[in-house]
Amino acid sequence: MCPFKEINIDQILDDNLKDNEFKMQYIKISHQYDLADQLIKIRKFKGLSQKQLAQKTELSQQAISRLEREKHIPKMDTLFKILEGLDASLEIIMRD
Prior knowledge:
Elements: H1 9-16, H2 20-45, H3 50-57, H4 61-70, H5 76-85
Helix pairs in contact: 3-4, 3-5
């Protein structure tokens, strides 16, 4: 017999999403993770290492690594340097 109680993370999330403040923060973080994931995918698709992207953007390799590892969104000027280094753009779409 397992001494630990089974945890249903989906149920915990569903319960917490009923709280509007939690839901707003969850959506914000989800968007940040999605954007960071897209930047990683583009970098890898283009065959660039973190070091190569850092050289193209005049950022440190550590800054690129931190973005990818911690999935946080950098300041706007840094984000645009990364987009430029990836030859990519940011598109904003209005939701219905």
